[in-house]
Amino acid sequence: MTLSRKPEPKSEPRILLGPGPSMTHPRVMQAMTFPTVGHLDPQLLCLYGEEQELLRSVFGTQNEWTFALSGTGTSGMEAALANLLEPGDPVLIAIHGYFGERMAEISARQGALVDRLNRPLGEMFPVEEIDTALKKKNYKLLAIVHAETSTGAEQLHIPEIARSAHENGAMILLDTVTSLGGIPVEIDKWQVDAAYSASQKNLSAPSGLAPITMNSRARETIEKRKRPVTSFYLDLKSYANYWMGTHAYHHTASASVHFALTEALHILIEEGLLSAYQRYRSNAEKLWGGLEDLGASPFIPSEYRLPPLTTACVPDGIDPHQVRNRLLNEYNIEIASGFGALKDKVWRIGLMGYSSRTENIDLVLSALQDLMTDSNG
Ligand SMILES: Cc1ncc(COP(=O)(O)O)c(C=O)c1O
Predict the structure, then answer these.
(1) Which residue, by CA, sits nearest to atom 7 of ligand 1?
(2) This prediction's pTM
(3) How far apart are the CA of 15 and the centre of ligand 1, in A?
């Protein structure tokens, strides 16, 4: 190793049980060491075709416009909103946590007319509430987060919400950053017009790519824009041309992250999506049971609790930040604190992708038990 500032020497890799990144699968680590190729190399362009097919399987879609953007999940969010919205377009953002609020902020920066529909932290929307809001205006777009990483809540009833959006003349954009690969996502069956995700959570690759998919309605909306997309970098028409058209230079995409994501997608498809979802659920149930025993019950009701991300209520008398720091420094395990109003109330424990293994659950539960006994004593 010749880095001038090395990560702390540890004999074992960090046990990443936060809200992402998850641990990188050894096969994915190996793929990242392949010799790099240029962004216009036929080898990379051929890999894009393979990556697209794998992404279509994971998203449950036949959408031609399915690719992976250079950048993290936020670039997927920003690309979707910047391409679908033009200044003055009315957009409804259904917010049940921090990332919904981020969608509203980005939409406002696009000059869209943003209406926020808010749900208290840790709750999800009943379909009727969204339906009533959609009827109030001629919205162009409804945007909503499927799996809210800030609270650990899944927004159920996406097919019904999509139907309501369409009946009211709007498209639906779904954030699948914490759901894709971790719980069922069926873009075509649910009739979702546009969705994006991130490489570093249930897909078990490093961060750096944002998978995105757009159906023909979304694509036509983008093709018929009155003004060019404000972001040159996130212009999806240029992306589509680089991936699937003339392959004209758009930006110097990193081959290494595409090697990594493609290998990660192969691993997921080899395991089988249904088997992977079952593994996440049974591991999450083991974690939930252990947390109950420690007096740190899950915050979200089981009906819509996310297997990939659990918020656990911090027991009275325990300093959540001290426990979290000691977990990292003494046990080599990363978990996260809560967000916003939940900052001092919950821990966020992720069991995403390659991190979702029973040995990791045993480790985190026994470390939490030690540290909480210590704090109480
Ligand atoms: C639901 C959700 N949306 C968007 C993002 C933003 O992704 P990134 O941090 O990769 O930019 C995150 C990140 O955790 C997320 O959980």
Answers:
(1) 73
(2) 0.97
(3) 20
